[in-house]
Write a structure and sequence with these properties.
Order of helices and strands: HHHHHHHHHHHHHHHHHH
Number of strands: 0
CATH superfamily of the largest domain: Hypothetical protein af1432
Number of domains: 2
CATH class of the largest domain: Mainly Alpha
CATH topology of the largest domain: Hypothetical protein af1432
Distance between the termini: 63 Å
Structural class: mainly alpha
Shape: globular
Strand content: under 5%
Bound molecules: magnesium ion
Length: about 400
Amino acid sequence: MTAGPVSPVTGDQLAPWAARDDRSRGRRHPEPAPHYRGQFQRDRDRIIHSAAFRRLEYKTQVFVNHEGDLFRTRLTHSIEVAQIARSIARALRLNEDLTEAIALAHDLGHTPFGHAGQDALNQCLRDHGGFEHNFQSLRVVDRLEHRYAAFRGLNLTFETREGILKHCSPARARGLGELGRRFLDGGQPGLESQLTNLADEIAYNSHDVDDGLRAGLLDIDGLCSTRLFGSQYETVRRLHPDLAPRRTVHEVVRRIIDRQVVDLIETSRQRIEAVRPEDIEAVRRLPEPLIAFSTDMQDQNRELKHFLHEHLYRHYRVHRMSVKAGRVINALFEAFVVDPRLLPDEARDHARELEREKGATGLARGVADYIAGMTDRYAIAEYERVYNPRELT
Ligand code: MG
């Protein structure tokens, strides 16, 4: 097949190995089929209407939300992932609606302050099973969003939940029934899940380059030591030698995304054609994922990731923010676990309910659910309200 524009893929045009809503493994609580929408469109819509989705706007990706208006947040990141993932899904005749739902939901369980927040919360919960953001995303859609009359959570389809749960420890997987099985017995999720996972990687590697340059934490010379950035930078400079620096960066970043997307589509197409699984169930039984980069692109990706780790995520300015974020999370956790009456009513009722079910571990989990749901600025404000005697509310 040659590269070219691809029209939306629906119904009979879907590849045999794509997810189909008429063959979905269904929802935990059976519901009548939606009018004028497919099952995965319904999932996407429920995700967009959730409170957790709106909070993504004020949660950090790498930079804390108030550092500047132009940096990515979890919301814009999720939208970028959805955009990239949908292009890949459509080109491979996979289910675009399901792909979009997974992409928009994949970060719902993220704590405030990015990875620093997650590490801190994981540490707080070390004696109570730890904290994993993927599992928390599933917890958000399965339990914590509490708004529909007939069920708890968003009651999403198996396929969307399968995509949200990217990683899972065996201990947790055992409690998840069918959904946890692949983490215990091996096997793969559907192709829509596999591709969204890699679209996430494409999105954050490229936008962290862009944001890192904008913040002045990365420089072009350093980035040119990576093949992925270096080769595209050279091309753009050759084609447009007089282009202003900001436009040059944008041109390079969009080419980096494009190179990766094209590589992923073409490599995956070959891998799928070599196996031609009968349906999504056959995809799930395979020992290896079918959606993958070429070996060369995988190496180039690893190189860029390594560069970002060394120069951006470990930059002292990012680290300072991470340390402060960790203190805020630790202090809030400590205060609420010691005296749950400091929690607002709804959060306290939730924590008490879990405490009745599982004692101290339940209480710790309930407090973690409250903290994980906070936006960056809410966490800082809550810290002030709990610890600063001048704040009276
Ligand atoms: Mg992500």
